[in-house]
Request: fold
Amino acid sequence: MAKIDERFITYKDAATEALLQAMEKDEKVFLMGEGVDNITGVYGQVLPAYRKFGPKRVIDTPLSENGLTGFAIGAALDGMRPVLIHQRNDFMLLTMDQLMNQAAVLRYASGGRHRVPLTILSFVARRSGEGAQHSHSLQSIFAHFPGIKVGMPACAIDVKGMILSAIFDDDPVIILEHKHPTLYDKIEYVPEQYYETSFNSKIVTLGQDITIVTVSINLINALEAQWELKAEGIFPEIIDLRWLRPLDIGPIVHSVKKTGRLLVVDTGWKMYGVSSEIIAQVCENAYTYLKFPPRRITIPDAPCPASQFLEKYYHPSAKDIIKTVREMI
Amino acid sequence: MVLNPDSENIGLLKKLYYDMLRIRLVEEKLADWYTSGLIKAPVHLSIGQEAVAVGVVAALSPEDKIVSTHRCHGHYLAKGGDLKKMMAEILGKATGCCHGRGGTMHLFDDSVGHVISAPLVGASIPFAVGIAMASKMKGENKIAVAFFGDGAVEEGVFWESVNFASVFKLPVLFVCENNLYATHSPILRRQPYEEIVSRVKSHNIRTFYINNGNDVLMVLKAAREAVSETRKFKPCLIEACTYRLREHWGPGEDWHLGYRTLEEGDEWLAKCPFKQLRKVFDKSGNLSQLDIDDMEEMIKKEIDAAVKFALESPAPPENELLSEVGG
Reply:
């Protein structure tokens, strides 16, 4: 057993640990993706698995995103548990045919006889200057399709547990990590043993004045914002969504019935997005409890600029949350 | 000539004939069903193309896996798929191979190694590559076969599959049924040459070109060699030229549409898979009209039983609409 203080590790290392533990647990698990065995091994996250399990189970691949998804489906249909890794979720748009026309529907279209235990592990790769084709956050597109689960872990404990839940689920699951250093390099306590994270949203802080639902890295923004709000006597209840599909709306509705106010903070766009869906479901289920129109903070309705001078206005921040909450109270 | 109809081979030759006839008669029954309004879905008949499915599958071992396309009836039956489950599936019944959810374009029968059919053009090709990858990882001896048409060669995923299979030396056999048309578009309007093998060879894939893919013995000969190579982790591609005699989908003929000529059709009718195999038998006198009549009778009995099963099977209940969605 490691000492407690050795168990404070980064989000990135927690994800690495999940991959290692999954491969140790079941020899049917294998990883593949572009550059997984290269010197950085997907930001350093996959290299330990390559060193331990070698090229037969950690496979560097040609740049064939759609084909790779089909190969993984085929392997899954033949009893394996493939983990397909894309370094940016922007690349996943190249896989949509295999992912959504195939992986997502095969169980249903076969009357439950085909199961596709496929994990897609990818990243919202937001870093300075990545621009319009390398840093987007496309979860709402993926979450639109019945038949495929989508998770966005917002802390180190969850990234480990959610990856393990994904790999040992018998249906396809997409996990989108977030690579901004605020989250990716954040150090938190993570248990050493194997565990899976349930397909539920998580109440992170209890409060009675407003419900703030966060997606991915926005949990960090909301946690930062809460101190200033509390100093002003506003106590938010913060709920980390964790899974976009299945959507665990129950705790959110329950919370809004208590607080009467709802703010959703997403890393994606507003139109047809995650925030739209949550607000719609809350309105359907708790309309009469609302004391104020629900609000949402998202990225603006434009692609991400590469310019460092423009990019700083693009992503939601703790300040945006504080400002919006003040307007709502 | 690959096989003489002597005592040693006569059983196999009769089986080839029987398997092709079974596909033909089943699909003719489906055409009747469609015309009478029983089928509420587009059926893609492979009438005219039976020799490719039967010839390739005859070279496989039972544990080998196949994947297929929207035009999957022939592959399913050649691999030994359950006829009752197929007919029930096509009628959308609960007893179908997909509980009625998949329909005519999603046939599969795991128990005989037909893993899946997927109707989007080219989409099932990478599945065969993945099955081959899994097979190699697990140290198994089986190979995977992807059936597809000439249109699939225009899809990126085909080339991604060929490239990957070659680089990773996977036991996968690609079988292109080149019937010259993608729906109504002729191949030379879509591709630089009528033949496909020369473009695939450059990927270090061994190729087999069969200009008369309606000759089941030619197909079997190429398939035996290709399967043997593939089993040694040398992926191969067979291109078998053949011809669809019916509409792209539906029960009838479509010469009136004008995208292909009756003369072209007649050339291929002369290369009828049944006529060609019967010529082999006729020389030896080893297959009489009586034998063929017996075969027809046996197949028709099987079809009648499957039709009865399908018609009498229950429809899936409404509460199944949202079951097995996953996610």
Remarks:
- Chain B touches chain A through 45 residues (CB under 8 Å).
- Residues 122 and 155 of chain B are 6 Å apart (CA to CA).
